Amino acid sequence: MDCGTSLIKYLLFFFNILCSICGILLIAFGVIFINNLGHMKNFDDLQTQHIPVVLIVLGAVILIISFFGCCGAIRESYCMSMTYAFFLLVLLICQLVLIAYVWTNKQEIGRKLEKAVDVAWEERTRAGTQANAMDAIQIGLKCCARRNFIEYGVSIPSSCCQEQNCSNPLNIYVTGCKTALVSLWDNNGDIIKFAGLGIAAIELIGFIFACCLANNIRNYKRRADY
Predict the structure, then answer these.
(1) Could you give the CA distance from residue 176 to residue 93 in angstroms, rounded to a whole number?
(2) Is pLDDT larger for residue 82 or for residue 4?
(3) Residue 24 · residue 30 · CB < 8 Å
(4) Across the chain, where does the E strand assignment appear?
(5) Measuring CA to CA, how many Å separate 134 from each of 47, 103, 118?
(6) Distance (Å, rounded) from C-alpha 22 to C-alpha 30?
(7) Burial 67-76 (b: 16+ CB within 10 A, else e)
(8) Helices (H) and strands (E) in the chain, counts
(9) Does 197 score more than 60 pLDDT?
(10) Residues 6+ apart with CB under 8 A from 5
(11) Running DSSP on this structure, what letter comes out for residue 76?
(12) pTM exceeds 0.90 for this model
């Protein structure tokens, strides 16, 4: 192999390491978002839980593809390098579609989250003091009621208080769950968007290097046959 091919090979290996790190970050963001949502997946009309699941799956796919990319670079295989480049391109396109969906539907997703809190509140009203999804939301997001704790009157549940101890009024969460949940989505939505764009840029560079490496490997083998 010439120096140019060797340089591309090591650069591709380095970028696959970066992609692996990005895949781990995507998985971490997805897990954090799912943990913060708590039991929101119990609502049939809420589809936002699909986004963190897609992030986790996408991160796992990136890890697997990066592993094969590293193997292709080390073995200097034209077939493996082109296969890696193809799947990386497909992954890049899917990732950009996901980012575009989040970007264009951010307000709609926020409205669905607010509706989910309304559903949980109605369920809480019907169930009385029985533990339900509203309690899970209040504990997970450190919030109280739909808008504020005043909606409970004098019967504030323990899930509305720090360490579930409402004997001290200062322990009561003052933020409503609608505000807390939408704020959570707004903050994580921006993280998902910009992290996704950064990862997509890295994947594009990796795709270019994979194509260059495959081309150099093919040319080297052709010259070796003569």
Answers:
(1) 38
(2) 82
(3) no
(4) none
(5) 18, 28, 9
(6) 12
(7) ebbbebbeeb
(8) 6, 0
(9) yes
(10) 76, 213, 216, 217, 220
(11) T
(12) no
DSSP state at residue 142: T
Strands (E), 49-137: none
The confidence band for 95, taking pLDDT boundaries of 50, 70 and 90, is: confident
What's the distance, CA 68 to chain centroid? Answer: 22
Q: Which residues pair with 172 in a beta bridge?
A: 161
pLDDT at site 129: 52
DSSP assignment letter at 130: S
Task: Assign 101 to helix, strand or coil.
Answer: helix
Nearest CA to 5 among 115, 81, 100, 110? 81
Instruction: Say whether pLDDT at 45 is over 60.
Output: no
C-alpha to C-alpha distance for 199 and 27, rounded to whole angstroms: 13
Angle between helices 133-141 and 3-37 (to 10 degrees): 120
For 143-181, the pLDDT digits (tens) are 888 888 888 888 888 888 888 888 888 888 988 888 888
Contact criterion met (CB below 8 Å) for 177 and 137:
yes
SS3 state of residue 161: strand
Contact 144, 155 (CB under 8 A): no
> Do residues 2 and 200 touch, judged by C-beta distance below 8 A?
no
Q: Which residues have CB under 8 Å from 45's CB, separation 6+?
A: 112, 115, 116, 119
Q: What is the DSSP string of 34-57?
A: HHHHTTGGG-TT--TTHHHHHHHH
